[in-house]
Design brief:
The chain has 248 residues and is mostly helical. The protein has helices at residues 18-43, 52-76, 80-104, 117-143, 148-159, 164-174, 182-204, 209-223, 225-229, 232-243.
């Protein structure tokens, strides 16, 4: 009698990674904040008139965040070829996000002119530092594309400086205030930084160069916030940027 041996098909259980959950949390912060002050008012036709560049930036940044979540999910389902194919598209979107973020730095953070003093310069500082940090960290992510460990960490760190607008809106809605929740925004960013660093330490027993670089750049920028925004040179620089815009 011939014995017939049948093999059971290999099973694969989806386990969402730390990186997927981090990008998902960041996307929630972005869409949660902007749904209050942008998407919902737009849907109800109650959004105040805005320069076209703001709408373009909003579309590009939303596309960028959705792409990041998709890219993380593709890695989780082991579809690396598609992940790599979308990588080129991701570079193009990220480059456009950076260009339009740079252009937005010349627009007033508060077109009504009601925000002055420390709050106004803080908003300008957040915008300028976001452009610089995102540019640096995303460039490092591309340079380390053949090193997946560093690449994905640099991507996560590159997103964090772009989060304050969404985080600010969430806290302002929750606290029912028009005052910039700078401390809470920085604490939220630091929690994300800490999560990446702790994940490194728990899974590797040491910190990667990407985690050290990302943490130093982001936290270091925060520590420079008060000294820089309180200087006359920064005030003059902000006024110069504002003079380049026809909306001031």
């Amino acid at each position: 009698m011939t014995e017939i041996i049948t093999e059971k098909p290999a099973t694969y259980s989806l386990r969402l990674s730390f990186y997927f959950w981090m990008t998902a949390i960041m996307a929630v912060l972005v869409f949660g904040g902007f749904s209050i002050t942008y998407w919902q008012p737009m849907a109800t036709s109650s959004l105040a008139p805005l320069p076209p560049i703001v709408h373009i930036h909003g579309f590009l940044f939303s596309a960028w965040m959705l792409l990041l979540v998709t890219q993380s999910l593709l890695v989780n389902v082991r579809n690396v070829p598609l992940h790599r194919s979308l990588g080129t598209f991701g570079i193009a979107i990220a480059t456009l996000v950076w260009i339009f973020a740079l252009m937005l730095t010349i627009l007033p953070s508060d077109p009504t002119g009601q925000t002055t003093g420390f709050q106004y310069f803080s908003l300008e500082y957040l915008s300028i530092s976001a452009v610089i940090l995102f540019g640096v960290l995303f460039t490092l992510a591309i340079r380390h594309v053949r090193n997946p460990d560093n690449h994905r960490r640099y991507i996560l760190f590159a997103i964090i400086p772009l989060l304050p607008p969404g985080i600010n809106r969430l806290y302002m809605a929750l606290l029912d205030t028009f005052t910039l929740p700078l401390l809470w925004t920085y604490l939220t960013m630091d929690l994300l930084v800490a999560a990446i660093v702790i994940h490194d330490w728990r899974t590797r027993g040491a910190l990667t160069s990407a985690s050290v670089t990302g943490a130093v750049l982001i936290v270091g920028t925060q520590l420079l916030h008060v000294p820089i925004t309180g200087s006359e040179s920064f005030a003059d620089f902000c006024m110069f940027l504002g003079s380049l815009s026809g909306y001031r």
